[in-house]
């Protein structure tokens, strides 16, 4: 399969024909200077200089030249990089009139990018009319960020009215390099906490916790976060009105100043190329020295913050032109991170050269618990793969069986030792009701949970005993108890908070184990084959029908021969979906049913 990938920018168009399976490129096109005299270069050595046809036509003119080259190459589909997908897109989408209209409507959020991306889409759809076109969004991967990470502290109605929230960008690259890093480490992204630093002309960091982006440094626009080539990154918002008062600059010029005249360029006056800045800083240019310090200081600040957010980190990844090629920046960003468990191997870092054959290099010490990796990013290949998957899966939806939905009220699983402490040595839990998952029961016993703010009585114990204590509560319970519990899958209780438990025979201090259960579906391997999913895939489920239907995203698949097909959501989610909740402390089936749309959040 050959996919044509197009990235249309304001002054350049890049395109490549890629086999998504092998990553092999049969043709690449790079067109520059679109606004005055387009110069098109192809990977086969051909160069075409064109007379300006004006910005409106420039992209189309380049794509026409490309089509001419592709006369004998069968294309299976076209993938377009689109910068802003807003609230609407958490994955790549097949482009139709409706998708085009949505991308157009997002122009107000990304005035510099989406209109140009759309111009590319429209020109390409005309020229390559007999194949499907797909939009792959820079923001999509970060849609999984929790609300706390997406939300600015502004008046809520104002934010809702204008779509103001954090979206994040570079998602295609962050997702790709995290998957590459995991593969290099012989693991799956869903087992790792990874901090990815994409350092190109634009720079951003992402915290990828067990395969999902939970934080990223760019916000509503790509201006927030790190110091970049020409963008300021974070700054006190008070500077903007101050600048306006002091200089009289109107908002659009301040925007231009922050986006195009700041960052490394603004700090140094020698331009935005990190190579020049590093060279000048070694020669003693004090502005360049400071710029390098500000750049890496900000980066270190984010690395520390993201380790804190994920309560630890397994790998820190450097990518993009700077991250892949600059040992000095990697050194400055990753020295003295031993408090996190990351110990740099300076020799390895200095000699690291990424290539097609060595796209990942580990530059940490062998005994470093956290791996420091330089990873070559490949957004074009990532886009081609997304398209390839969509083409293959085209008609798989709507032929799937429905899934019963059950609501889990708050409950606790206990270890043998904890049962002893709470109910007396050797105490055996009594079965109150067998649950739908074979062998699992709601016990007659309950415990009292004591949080820093409040106490909840009669929290149902589920049996049989397990190897780890685990208290599963809803967001509402969290706020009531005063505990900030992470969303986790069952069994993953490392680095979670604890609380006090009281039983009839005594108290027990739970050191960790309080989680907000990740909504999930239990199924057998046979069910998994029917749905075409694997253990720990992440999917989406539509529950109910008509006006009351609700789509639950981020639903985790759990596969075991011991399971019975059933989706578990908590009481908050049940209430939101207007599904009746069961008796307290007992898992109860309801009549809801679901259809499943599959989404592999990350490829292994
Ligand atoms: P884009 O974000 O436009 O895709 P790139 O990822 O290609 O950009 O990154 C461009 C940046 O990478 C530039 O600032 C360039 O100076 C920097 N860069 C490339 N090679 C090196 C190097 N060997 N040392 C330091 N910086 C480098």
UniProtKB/TrEMBL annotation:
Pfam families found in the cross-reference section: Acetate_kinase (PF00871), PTAC (PF06130)
Record's catalysed reaction(s): acetate + ATP = acetyl phosphate + ADP
Binding site for Mg(2+): 7, 379
Residues annotated for ATP binding in this entry: 14, 198-202, 273-275, 321-325
Pathway(s) the chain acts in: Metabolic intermediate biosynthesis; acetyl-CoA biosynthesis; acetyl-CoA from acetate: step 1/2
PROSITE patterns named among the record's database cross-references: ACETATE_KINASE_1, ACETATE_KINASE_2
Top-tier EC class: transferase
Note on how the cofactor is bound: Mg(2+). Can also accept Mn(2+).
GO terms for cellular component: cytoplasm
Positions bearing the site annotation: Transition state stabilizer: 170, 231
InterPro entries recorded: Ac/propionate_kinase, Aliphatic_acid_kin_short-chain, Aliphatic_acid_kinase_CS, ATPase_NBD, PTAC
PANTHER family attached to this UniProt entry: ACETATE KINASE (PTHR21060), ACETATE KINASE-RELATED (PTHR21060:SF15)
Protein name in UniProt: Acetate kinase
Species annotation: Neolewinella aurantiaca
Organism lineage: Bacteria, Pseudomonadati, Bacteroidota, Saprospiria, Saprospirales
Gene: ackA
